[in-house]
Amino acid sequence: MQACQLPGFVDSGEAEDVVIARNNRRWLEQACGMLFANRAIASHFSFERDHEVARTFGFHGVFNLPEAVGIDDFWSIYRLLDDKSTIHTDFWPLLRALASGANGLSRAGRLAVDQIRGFVR
Fold first, then answer.
1. Would you state the torsion angle of the CA atoms of residues 21, 26, 29, 31, taken in this order, to the nearest 10 degrees?
2. Type and span of the H or E element at 11
3. Cα angle 45, 47, 52; round to 5
4. Is the dihedral of CA 59, 62, 65, 66 positive or negative?
5. DSSP 8-state assignment for residue 21
6. Which residues pair with 59 in a beta bridge?
7. What is the reported pLDDT for 68?
8. What is d(CA 73, CA 25) in angstroms, rounded to the nearest whole number?
């Protein structure tokens, strides 16, 4: 986090993982002596789309939350979000997950309405 505040670090405004691990990776390695794990090692720690939730410590992507915490707990978390439009990238996988659980049609409908409202604003 301190290295990301140094002169030479370029914040393009993209997602933080892209800015840090892709856009500034070479600079962080050369100027700050950081090491990044290769894909094989990193995949034992966390994943986005290529593993099962239970096999790693963490994950990236809100679309993995229903599997990680369960559909009911995901729904509780989602309902507390101030800005529900932030899930727009993962809308379809989340809609499918919600539709398969308890109160599925009601929850999927609420998710759809929230997304429409988020785009209308």
1. -120
2. none
3. 100
4. negative
5. I
6. 47
7. 86
8. 35
Spatial contact of 114 and 105, defined as CB atoms under 8 Å apart: no
**Rounded Cα gap, residues 34 and 32, in angstroms:** 6
What are the pLDDT digits (tens) for 98-120?
Answer: 999 889 999 999 999 998 887 65
- Alpha-carbon Rg for the chain in angstroms: 18
Q: Are 90 and 62 in contact (CB under 8 A)?
A: yes
Q: Is the pLDDT of residue 54 over 80?
A: no
* DSSP code string of 28-89: HHHHH------HHHHHHHEESSSS-GGGSSEE--GGGHHHHH-HHHHHHHHHH-S-GGGGGG
Task: Please give the DSSP secondary-structure letter assigned to residue 83.
Answer: -
- To the question of pTM greater than 0.70 for the whole model, the response is no
Query: What interhelical angle do 91-99 and 104-120 show, nearest 10?
Result: 160
pLDDT digits 0-9 by tens, 68-104:
889 999 999 999 988 887 788 889 999 999 999 889 9
Residue type at 73?
D
Torsion (CA) 121, 96, 54, 48 in degrees, nearest 10 = -50
- Tokens found for residue 30: 């050369």
Alpha carbons 38 and 87: distance in angstroms, whole number: 28
